[in-house]
Amino acid sequence: MKTTNKISKIALELTFSLAAKHLKILCAGMAIAAFAVASSVQAQYTEIGIGSQANADLDTYSPSPGTYPSGGSQLTVAGVPFATAELNNTPNTFGIVQSPAGGPPNIVSSGPFDFTFSVPIGTQAQALYCLMDSVWGAGGENVGSIIVTGGHGETATLTLTEGVNIRDCHNDGFENGISDPTVVSTYFANGVTTPSTDATMRLDRQELVLPSTFNGDTIASIDFQGTALGYGGDAFLAGLTLESVPEPSASVLLAVGIAALVIYRVKRRGLV
After folding, report:
1. Range of the structural domain that residue 257 is part of
2. Pair (54, 144) in one structural domain
3. Are 190 and 196 in contact (CB under 8 A)?
4. Three-class SS of residue 48?
5. Residues 15, 69: one domain?
6. How many structural domains are present in the chain?
7. Phi and psi of 246, rounded to 5°?
8. Confidence of residue 2 (pLDDT cuts 50, 70, 90)
9. Are 69 and 23 in the same domain?
10. What digits encode the pLDDT tens for the residues 163-211?
11. What is the CB neighbour count within 10 angstroms for residue 270?
C-alpha cells in the first residue's frame, strides 16, 4: 500500500511539474475553452412566418416600383434575420400584414385589426424583434401593439407609438422621427438596402425584451393588434423573429473548470 501511495504521489508531482512547464499551453487551452463557451451561447433565432396573413404589397407604397426587395427571402437587420413574405405567393412582391381596410396608396384605412401568429412548438425566447412601420403617421398616436403570450399565460407587450418606435415608411411629409434608441432603421433603394438615410423608403426594427416570467417557458403565440387611424398612422408588420440564448453546454463548462483548477494547483505548489 505504501509503495502504491508513493507511486501515486510521484505521478501527481510529475503531472504538476509537466503542467508548470506547459503553463502557456494550459493558458492557451483556457482561452480556447472560454472561446468555446462564448460560441456555445451565441443567440439563436426563430423566424416567424407571416405569409399566410399577408394582405398588402409594401412595394406599392413606394413612388418607384422595385424599391423594396422581393419577399420570400431572408432580410437581415443589425444581425437579426427575418423571413420576408410574398403577397399571395406572387413573385416580385413584398408581403406585409396590416389593417384589412388598407390597400393601395391613397386609400386611407381606419378601424381595428387583430392578427395572431403561431410559433413552432417548444420555442423559448428572451426577446422578440419586429420589422415594422406605418403608412402615414402623426407623432404621439398609438397605432397598435405586439403581444407575446407564453405557454403559462404570461404576456409581454410592445406598444407602437408614432414618433417613438414606429413611423411613416415613406420619408416625406408625415411622421419621420424615432426617439426610441433601441430601434434600428434600414433604408432601401433599387431593391436592396442602402446606408443612405436620404433614401425614400425604409423599415424599422423594434425590440421587445421578454420579462423573467418567460424563463423556462415556451412561446404560445404572437398577436399584432390595434386600430388604423388613417393619416394618423396605419401600422403594418413585415417580419417577426424570436431570439433565445442557450445555456453553455456542461462539457464546455467542465473543461474550463478543470483547466482553472490545474493552473491554481500549479501556482499554489510554487512550480512556476
Report:
1. 2-40+249-268
2. yes
3. no
4. strand
5. no
6. 2
7. -70, 155
8. very low
9. no
10. 999 999 999 889 999 999 999 999 999 999 999 988 999 999 999 999 9
11. 7
